[in-house]
Specification:
- This protein is mainly α.
- The protein folds into 2 domains: 83 residues, no CATH class; 166 residues, no CATH class.
- Helix content is 54%, strand content 11%.
- A 3-stranded antiparallel β-sheet has the order 1-2-3. The chain has a 3-stranded mixed β-sheet with strand order 4-6-5.
- The relative contact order is 0.10.
Length: 267
């Protein structure tokens, strides 16, 4: 034991072949944190210290304050991740990677069906076709007996995408009917399954049910827009709040008979 440059007593600790001096108070703090994490791991709760660190951004500063800055920031993050529940870890991972959760994929699928139906001929008439109309099911079901809803959705998506592209432009933008490939594939896989496909198609039985579904998804009442309306960036595609804003714009547009085209820019 000796004195460090701050006059604090320190103890030698061996880590493999390397030796380093760590203040006793820091060692005790580590022991306390370790015991605390074990205790909370047993009952599945988040320790108060970890919650406070996450709230106040201390995680990002710990690497510069513990042991004279010798602890990597990534190590602190890894340690604290042990206190998070599996559900919160998954949510954080998806948020950081931009991956959409199954719930958000289902939300986008519902939006695409409801908006697609309301914009067809016979309703608002924003794009041609009646792929989601009652008359299309007898026509498509013999050809696509297990994936009728998927076939209907693909048809209305193509029709609506052409109109959106004409009004918004094609390039570094995304909208409800033209999304990144990974999201399109996730929507395809969802609607390939008969149970969710039939459940979601109930949102477009008629105009009233489609409007009800749209309003239920909407974040709040939106003033009717006209033409292209930017709602966020591409990184916002994975968040439910962004799609609730999209739903609000479409709901206001259909109610006011005003064509509106929400979109996300690349940057």
């Amino acid at each position: 034991m000796g004195k460090n440059r701050n006059g604090l007593s320190s103890t030698m600790h061996r880590d493999g072949a390397n030796e380093e001096e760590k203040p006793d108070h820091a060692v005790n703090s580590c022991r306390h944190s370790r015991n605390e994490s074990v205790r909370h791991a047993a009952d599945g709760t988040l320790p108060p210290t970890a919650a406070s660190w996450c709230r106040n951004g201390i995680v990002d500063r710990l690497g510069c304050s513990i042991f004279g800055g010798t602890v990597p920031r990534e190590s602190i993050r890894f340690a604290i991740s042990g206190w998070l529940t599996p559900e919160s870890k998954l949510a954080n991972s998806r948020r950081e990677s931009g991956e959409m959760s199954p719930e958000n994929i289902e939300c986008v699928a519902t939006l695409r069906l409801a908006v697609g139906f309301l914009g067809e001929q016979g309703q608002a008439g924003w794009w041609p076709g009646t792929f989601l109309g009652a008359s299309s099911t007898p026509f498509l079901s013999p050809v696509f007996p297990k994936t009728t809803v998927l076939a209907q959705c693909r048809g209305v998506t193509h029709a609506a995408a052409r109109v959106h592209d004409e009004r918004i432009g094609v390039g570094s933008v995304f909208h409800l009917f033209r999304l990144p490939e990974d999201i399109e594939q996730a929507l395809h896989r969802l609607l390939e399954q008969q149970e969710p496909a039939q459940r979601l198609s109930s949102a477009v039985k008629d105009t009233q049910s489609a409007l009800t579904s749209l309003k239920a998804l909407a974040a709040s009442k939106q003033s009717p827009g006209n033409g292209p309306v930017r709602v966020g960036r591409a990184v916002d595609l994975s968040t439910l709040d962004s799609w609730r804003v999209v739903a609000a714009h479409y709901a206001a547009g259909f109610q006011a008979s005003s064509e509106v085209f929400p979109f996300f820019s690349a940057t």
